[in-house]
Amino acid sequence: MPAFADRLGRVQVAASVQMTIRARELRAQGVDIVQLTIGEPNFDSPRHAIEAAHKAALAGQTKYPPQDGIPALKQAIQRKFKHDNGLEYALDEICVTNGGKQAIFNALLATVNPGDESVIPVPSWSAYALMTKLCDGEPVFVTCPQNNGFKPRAEDIDAAVTPKTKWLILNNPNNPTGACCSAAELRAIADVMVKHPHVWIMSDDMYEHLVFDGFKHATIAQVAPELRDRTVTVSGASKAYAMTGWRIGYAGGPKNLIRAMVNMQGQATAGVSTVGQAAAAAALDGPQDGVCRADRRVPQTARHGGGDVERLQRHQLP
Ligand SMILES: Cc1ncc(COP(=O)(O)O)c(C=O)c1O
């Protein structure tokens, strides 16, 4: 039998994906199951986004899109970065990706050489380590102690950085713990990173709207403008707008990194679905009252997310 690549042995199917497959099987068999495996919002994509996709398709926007994203969506992302995050990016400092996941993968693929290290505060979303390995790199884990609210300590990050470190990957708010560093805590991490100019910094802000009790989300490029030239900020439509299936993510960062990321994407998937991009532009530019927020009440009509919140309530789980 012809052989597989060595890299296949470096990654396994993530446990969360395995559990999701199992949960879907059980549901298909009619089992009433609470699924807490993947971050699936419990409400539908905004109607105006769905209508925008429909309209775009009927208007013939069904051809190959630009590999970095359609102008309407990139402009909407530019406005979003400015309004929500206080970040100003030129259009050539923004790219649209197939989900936030591809933005992360593109960035790693474009930068990681064999043996390079990604510093990853843990607990973390499993994808950062798996993707680093897929790019022939090595994950280096930094424990986020419980007595620090499961947040990374700047001194621990400092100690983890070596000459081989290529990335520091921050996830704010964190999946799975929900921990979220304040602007001051990010500033302390930034002070450490200033000392390590050979390291790229990624801020995965996919859950930026899921904050509680008036907490103000911050992102490292915002609190440390001096790191802007080596920081990529990733987010997407998946969680904010319950658009996980549309596969729309995006990144803002320095032009040279964004260009390299688009180059990687160009070889793998080329651009992103035109109708999905039209939908995401409408979601970003449209009314924001439907944005997924931590304090958002689940509508009675919630259907496609699987109704896990309702199931949780019915099972009276903690
Ligand atoms: C922390 C984090 N970042 C990024 C993603 C990827 O989001 P997307 O579905 O847009 O690829 C996820 C998905 O669960 C996630 O948990």
Q: What can you see in these coordinates?
A:
There is one protein chain. With 318 residues, the chain is α/β, with parallel strands linked by helices. It has 12 helices and 7 strands. The protein folds into 2 domains: 6-44 and 297-315, no CATH class; 47-285, Aspartate Aminotransferase, domain 2, CATH 3.40.640.10. α3 (71-85) runs parallel beside α11 (274-285) and α6 packs parallel to α7 (183-193). The protein is globular, with a radius of gyration of 20 Å.
Task: Describe the structure in brief.
This protein has 318 residues and is of the alpha/beta class.
CATH C-level class of the largest domain is Alpha Beta
Global structural class: alpha/beta
Task: Note the run of SSEs as H and E.
Answer: HHHEHEHEHEHEHEHEHHH
Shape category = globular
Average pLDDT taken over every residue: 91
Please give the radius of gyration in angstroms: 20 Å
Unreliable stretches = 296-306
Largest sheet: 7 strands, mixed
CATH homologous superfamily assignment of the largest domain: Type I PLP-dependent aspartate aminotransferase-like (Major domain)
How many separate helices? 12
- What hetero molecules are bound to the protein chains? pyridoxal-5'-phosphate
Write the layout of secondary structure elements.
Layout: H1 15-28, H2 47-58, H3 71-85, E1 94-98, H4 99-111, E2 117-122, H5 127-134, E3 138-143, H6 154-160, E4 165-171, H7 183-193, E5 200-204, H8 220-223, E6 231-236, H9 237-240, E7 248-252, H10 255-268, H11 274-285, H12 308-315
Parallel strand pairs: 2-3, 2-4, 4-5, 5-6
Antiparallel strand pairs: 1-7, 6-7
Helix pairs in contact: 2-11, 3-11, 4-5, 4-10, 6-7
Pyridoxal-5'-phosphate is lined by residues 38-39, 99-101, 125, 171, 175, 204, 206, 236, 238, 244, 249.
